[in-house]
Design goal:
496 residues; mainly alpha; 17 helices
């Protein structure tokens, strides 16, 4: 719950953090991207640690570290410290997530695994979607720091319960060594990819620096794949990907997260800065999304147990695509009822994907690689979230930069210097109106209209891109099937 919650609870606090610490749009993106990137880069390694030393130990270490990093963020007084400790949050969160899935896989037999993952998915889905609501309450009535402080007592409770309840499960064929070069190559390749995507709007998509990092990423992935075929105990045995369903499940998680987490990043700014809602009101308007994920996840687990994952996954992504298209039609005058319709559709579409893709990945991996499989599942989701924020952020920034000058001129507003236009664009990208103090009310109203209309055009394009990604995911979902190795769950593992 803590790790998933922190993926989205910060979204509702971003405007408050931005104002309090004087952060730029890029800084705000790094509050999210630093967390996702740290998770994505280390999840597979953390999964291997769980397979080697036991998932219980890695889980409990992750709990303590995550809670401590959360408390440190709450005490930070600069954006640099916030981003730094968000990275530490991500690193310790990476120990938690694969370990949780590894414990589930080892504990539950095949006939109960889907329901167990369904309940797990309900907690993850509810935490992911409920973040904005809890965040809104805390930001409005306490402070943005409380969004992070809340993890401290939760971490203490999780540690106590974990020590009392959890038992360790270790597969007989657990790995005995670590692939240090593989870890370095995979981490470097992932970092170069996301760094290029995040910096491309500032550097330019055709700039040499952008393509240098993209090329370095491709080279890193190629060298990693080559190395993995030669090392005795690879970080990720490439034989895993001979399973088409497992590979499809990984791709599906990436595409789902791009559409969901990338789109959610802009919705919070839309609700607060365009519609002028308080953080709490913004969170409450996302309640249909939360509710449908809470209700849909265990139901999806039961449905997938009966029918297999293929149809629920394809149907879920189709509903996600329709909902993202609907969100592209939102404007400054959209009613709460229409918003709720699209948010509810999004939550109902995502629930079977969260549960089904997880079962497909973990269930198609050998028992001794359950931690690596859990790491793959979570890495796919976190990479997708980071790519979604980066790519859709780039789409938004490009659209705003392209439209703002023309819209400003068309409204017959006072001309801006290039530097002023750049500052105005930074504000508009988060839905804020660049109105200077002392501006006459009539002029301020015209500037606000131009800013909001330009922001809406950028958000609409970003949501359309997310809808296209979801359509592609429908076809990927058709390649999935029930886990071939699920029968090993709950059996063949040593209890320590």
């Amino acid at each position: 719950m803590m790790v998933a919650l922190d993926g989205t609870i910060v979204a509702i606090a971003n405007p408050a953090i931005q104002k309090d610490l004087g952060a730029s749009f890029a800084d705000v993106q790094w509050i999210t991207n630093g967390y996702f990137l740290a998770l994505a880069v280390t999840l597979i390694t953390a999964g291997k640690l769980g397979d080697r030393f036991g998932h219980r130990q890695t889980f409990l270490i992750g709990v303590v570290g995550f809670a401590a990093a959360s408390g440190a963020i709450g005490l930070s007084d600069s954006i640099a410290l916030v981003v730094t400790f968000r990275v530490f949050q991500g690193l310790f969160g990476a120990l938690l997530m694969p370990a949780a899935l590894g414990l589930l896989r080892a504990t539950f037999p095949a006939e109960k695994l889907n329901m167990a993952i369904g309940i797990w998915g309900m907690v993850i889905g509810a935490s992911t979607a409920g973040g904005p609501i809890l965040g809104g309450l805390l930001v409005q009535h306490v402070s943005w720091q409380s969004v992070f402080f809340i993890n401290v007592p939760v971490g203490v409770a999780a540690l106590v319960l974990g020590l009392l309840i959890l038992t360790d499960h270790r597969a007989q064929n657990a790995p005995r060594s670590f692939d240090i070069p593989g870890i370095a190559l995979l981490s470097g390749a992932m970092f170069c990819l996301v760094w290029a995507l995040i910096k491309a709007p500032a550097w330019g998509w055709g700039a040499g620096l952008t393509w240098t990092f993209l090329g370095a990423s491709v080279l890193g992935f190629a060298l990693f794949a080559l190395w993995e075929t030669r090392v005795e105990e690879p970080l990720i045995p490439l034989g895993l990907f001979r399973s088409v369903p497992l590979s499809a499940g990984v791709v599906l998680m990436v595409l789902m997260a791009i559409a969901f987490l990338g789109g959610l990043f802009f919705v919070t700014f839309y609700l607060q800065n365009v519609h002028g809602m308080s953080p709490v009101d913004a969170g409450l308007h996302l309640l249909p999304l939360t509710g449908m994920m809470i209700v849909g996840s265990p139901l999806a687990g039961a449905l997938i147990t009966k029918t297999g994952p293929r149809i629920p996954l394809a149907g879920g992504m189709a509903l996600t695509a329709i909902s993202m298209y609907g969100m592209s039609t939102l404007d400054t005058g959209t009613s709460g009822g229409v918003m709720s319709l699209w948010f509810a559709g999004l939550g109902l579409g995502l629930a079977p994907v969260m549960v089904g893709a997880t079962e497909v990945i973990v269930g198609n991996a050998p028992m001794e690689l359950s931690g690596v499989a859990g790491g793959l599942q979570q890495a796919a989701m976190q990479i997708g979230g980071s790519l979604g924020t980066a790519v859709l952020g780039a789409v938004m920034a490009s659209k705003v930069d392209g439209d703002l000058a023309g819209n400003w001129t068309a409204a017959k507003l006072p001309p801006l210097t290039p530097a002023q236009l750049d500052q105005a664009s930074q504000a508009v990208q988060v839905g804020a109106a660049p109105v200077a103090k002392g501006t006459p009310p009539e002029l301020a109203a015209k500037i606000t209209t131009v800013a909001h209309d330009t922001f809406i055009s950028g958000m609409s394009l970003a949501c359309l891109v997310a809808a296209v990604v979801a359509v592609v995911a429908v076809f990927v979902a058709l390649l999935t099937k029930r886990g071939e190795n699920a029968d090993a769950a709950g059996a063949g593992a040593g209890h320590v």
